Amino acid sequence: MSYKRPRAISPSGAQKRPRGAGAASTTITLGTELPPDEDSDDGTFVPVWKQTVTDERGRRRLHGAFTGGFSAGYFNTVGSKEGWAPKTFVSSRSNRNKDTTQRAEDFMDEEDKAAAAESRELETAQSFATIGRVGGSQNDALFGLFVTEEETMGVKIAQKMGWRRDQGVGRKVCRPARLDDAAGATAHTFAPKDSRIMSAAKEEVNRKGLGYRSEARLGATEEKEPEDRPMLALPWLEGPSKTKAPKRAAPKKSSFGVGVLNDTGSDDEDPYELGPRIKFNKSLGKDKKPKKPSKLAKAGVEGIVFKPKKASGESSARPQLSYDGKPPLPGFVLATQIIDLTSKKRYPPPKVPSGWKASKSTTEPAHAKSHQSVSDAAKSSTLDARARASLLGEKLLSGKSVFDFIPKDVRDRLATMTGKVNLPQGRGEGAPEGYEDPNSTKPKDLWTFVPILDKGTAAAALAKGATGWMPYAEDPNKRARYVSFLELRAGLKADLPERAGQTSVSNWAKELQEFAHAAEVFKPTTGLMASRFISSTATSLPGSGSSTPNENLVRRPAARPQDPAEQAAKLGMYGPMTRSTFPFYPSRLLCKRFNVRPPPDPPSADTNVDGAAFGGRTEEAVSKSAMDKMVHEVLSQGAPALQRPAWVGAPPEQPVEVSEASPIVPGGEHANVDVEKNDALTQERAPEDVFKAIFGDDDDDDDDDA
Amino acid sequence: MPYFPTTPIAKLTGHTGPVHAVAYSSSPHSYILTGAADRTIRLYNPSKAPPSSVAPTSSAAYAPGLITKYNAHGYEVLSIDVNGANDRFVSTGGDKIVFLWDVQTAQTVRRFTGHAGRVNRGVFGGEGDSVIVSASFDGTVRVWDVRSSSYKPLMTFSDAKDSVTDVLVFDGAIVSGSVDGRVRSYDLRTGYCEVDVIGYPVTSLTLSKKGTEILVSSLDSTVRLMDRGNGQLLKAYRDQAFVNTDLRVRSTLGLNDSVVLSGSDDGMTFAWDLLGGTALHKFRHSEMREMRGTAEKKEKGKKDIVSAVAFCPSRREWASAGGDGNVVVWGTDS
């Protein structure tokens, strides 16, 4: 569109200036010329940047690329009064957008701002510690406000001057390095050793106002020894020499009008008179009164310090720190001795006046006297067991001890074992009348030979024998005895195990022990072991050594519950009897991979009448009674006619011939089984419209669409 | 069945152990994959292996018709299944792993681990062979996802109470046969599993083309054709000489579902008429010939087993794999 337009044709001859100056114009122009049409395209050359694009109705269509673009705004309203004014593009490359952080106030209206201003509180910045200092001098309230946790200016200055932490202050010392291997140590300049500041060597800074009365107010004072340094002091500037100085307490302020500065120098007028009667050093330098025990000196003999009990007078003058290292609260004195609470004073009970008689007298004053313990009563009682029994009206047992019943040799054994010779004689009597064992004494003795076997083990051994292997296959008689023993121990029988022929009791007992050991093998597996095995459901193959003698010998405790479906299958009655159905739920992804619609959600428990747990349950299509009936019918009438596959043409003319080995009874009548209808399928599922109602609007029916 | 293929047309040799699995390749069905107890899977071109071919003396040499060997199994190979595109196949065996192979490169693409026992069967399933269904000695049927890289099975069916010997996939159903004598048909559409009690350990399952009947081999020397719809017995195939009581022997349907074919414990292969139930043919695998009459009862050799049979879906041709390590392909003369 920005082709260069052809130049305008050279001016017509009418417009040409006559060449000859003298020649008059040959044409006459009438009327005024129309103003040149700016918009009309008269074919004159217009530079590209002046060209405009208009639509067929003459409206401008193309604005500048940066001023609205093609047909900008709503129908060319750009730049008009109704439209938006195009902004010229400003590159943000050099003029980046200022990243102004937004404040909460930007989003507040006047009301919010007023509310915010009201709720404002004045607080210190983070670097300030709490107001005051715990354990610090309380009279520094104002300065305590400004104590910062930061380093003080003094530290900063000292650091600027080259001081480092853990160094001493002062000139550098030239000394050999103190290494562990001292050999070949050359001298270097080191910073002086940092000497620890004695926290005790601290002066109290007192800023007191007019009329301040310090501890003079209190009758007694105790000397304070605050741990903290004065807040604005630089203790390390005091120098090492000062640390050696004994503790100096600041002079106590006295009452108004008389101060240290007012000291006239006369000793008689002691300004500290009002304070505690303690002598202070008032001058620096030499210690004038070395009698005062220094704290440092005490520290050396801390281990063997002796604390006199009667030191109350001294303790008032001596600094005392409580267990947490702080002086006790003003007005309190540390206890010098621990009060023994256990050794409480005991006061005697109040004396009962003579002749006093309680209004509440016991009705039976003699009762208290007769009350005595059971053991005392037993001691004092002269009754023996017989007398007590007669008192209680009990029927008298034959009053015999154990020794009356044990044989003599047993009694002797007891006597030798216990070492007591005064045991009664063993008489070896029988049981008293009315208490004998119903069985004769002889079988009772024999019972002791029958070994104990766990009931479960015996039952398992029996069950195993009923289905498969059982020991003593070579000796049927022995096996029978074994079985009877197992039945006894399984609780199925109660009589004594039989004894074969003329075997002696010892042999018989030995055999029974052997049986017990053999049955132990069949102990049911428990726990981890049981979980590892699944009992096989595959039955033994037909014709594999039928064990008819076993059948006779092994009296089955109960018919092994056999699956009716298996029974039906063995009879060749395949169909509804051998078929069962249980629900499962395929995973969604599996259904997706098979491109089938997943079944409507877990075959809901509400359709199950009994609400059994979903998943593992198999449901029999035919009830047990119906099954038995069908089995009976088939056995009596023959198997149902075999069905042809749907795609096989005509049914065969003659009954299907089956080889002789077949257990199937060929041909015959139909059993009363509706083979067309499977109850298992019809009864289990809810009607389709139920599913539709619930799952009708399921989204993923793409497999249907496909 | 006048045209039942009775002539050996090829003999695939080379395996040094009993062949447990035979599978025709997909659509052209021109190749045969065999898996054997010698831990190898071999791909054969049966047209290059004449019946007279003998196994090479050295194991390194390639037997006639042998195209490739697939070596990865550490135990015997028990089943092979080829996918529809013929580029992958799945093999399972004693090493509890389901192998997914690439046919061209002879490398395993995926190995699915998770079974606790030997895997008796592995088949492709789903749309576009997107899953592998495996049946294992541990009593579970697991469904593995081929498309995702998940190492976990999509689903595990652990309803069987004994070893699961065979599984097949048809449409939206997974059918498994177990030693506990049951055929379980999991219908993914309805969410119900139908359990058909066969009564004897089930060793092989084959589905008809329509999917409404299923051929079930069980260890009572009987092959049964069951109706999947209602679980009824359609036909039982037996023979006096047919013995299958101990071993997992495959059976199959052939010739457009008109013939039932089954191997046996004693080296015979039996072909029954599906409708009539009469034994049409008996073949002795080791002698590569059809047996006539019923009288001859040969002494059963140790290796005389026909453990797997496969029917070519498109041609009149089938293959029987024996305990002697050879696979015989039977066809018509012409």
In short:
By secondary structure, chain A is mainly alpha-helical. Chain A has helices at residues 110-118, 141-145, 153-160, 240-243, 295-300, 312-317, 365-370, 374-380, 385-392, 408-418, 441-447, 455-467, 476-489, 505-520, 527-532, 548-553, 564-570, 588-594, 624-637, 679-684, 688-695, 702-705; strands spanning 173-176, 187-190, 579-583, 619-620. Chain B has a domain at 29-259: YVTN repeat-like/Quinoprotein amine dehydrogenase (Methylamine Dehydrogenase, Chain H), CATH 2.130.10.
Map the helices and strands:
The complex is a heterodimer of chains A (706) and B (334).
Chain A: H1 110-118, H2 141-145, H3 153-160, E1 173-176, E2 187-190, H4 240-243, H5 295-300, H6 312-317, H7 365-370, H8 374-380, H9 385-392, H10 408-418, H11 441-447, H12 455-467, H13 476-489, H14 505-520, H15 527-532, H16 548-553, H17 564-570, E3 579-583, H18 588-594, E4 619-620, H19 624-637, H20 679-684, H21 688-695, H22 702-705
Antiparallel strand pairs in A: 1-2, 3-4
Helix pairs in contact in A: 12-13
Chain B: E1 7-12, E2 19-24, E3 32-36, E4 40-44, E5 66-71, E6 77-82, E7 88-93, E8 97-102, E9 107-113, E10 119-125, E11 131-136, E12 141-145, E13 155-157, E14 164-170, E15 173-178, E16 182-187, E17 192-197, E18 202-207, E19 213-218, E20 222-227, E21 233-237, E22 251-254, E23 259-262, E24 268-273, E25 279-284, E26 289-291, E27 306-311, E28 317-322, E29 327-331
Antiparallel strand pairs in B: 1-29, 2-3, 3-4, 4-5, 6-7, 7-8, 8-9, 10-11, 11-12, 12-13, 14-15, 15-16, 16-17, 18-19, 19-20, 20-21, 22-23, 23-24, 24-25, 25-26, 27-28, 28-29
Distance between the termini of chain B: 16 Å
The biggest sheet of chain B amounts to: 5 strands, antiparallel
Amino- and carboxy-terminal Cα gap of chain A: 52 Å
Question: What is the CATH class name of the domain at 29-259 in chain B?
Answer: Mainly Beta
Count the DSSP helices of chain A: 22
What count of helical segments of chain B does DSSP give? Answer: 0
Q: Which sheet architecture does the biggest sheet of chain A show?
A: 2 strands, antiparallel
> Would you tell me the overall average pLDDT of chain A?
65
Oligomer: heterodimer
Secondary-structure element order of chain A, as H and E?
HHHEEHHHHHHHHHHHHHHEHEHHHH
Tell me the CATH topology of the domain at 29-259 in chain B. Answer: Methylamine Dehydrogenase, Chain H
Could you list the spans of chain B in which at least 5 consecutive residues all have pLDDT below 50?
none
Share of β-strand residues of chain B: over 45%
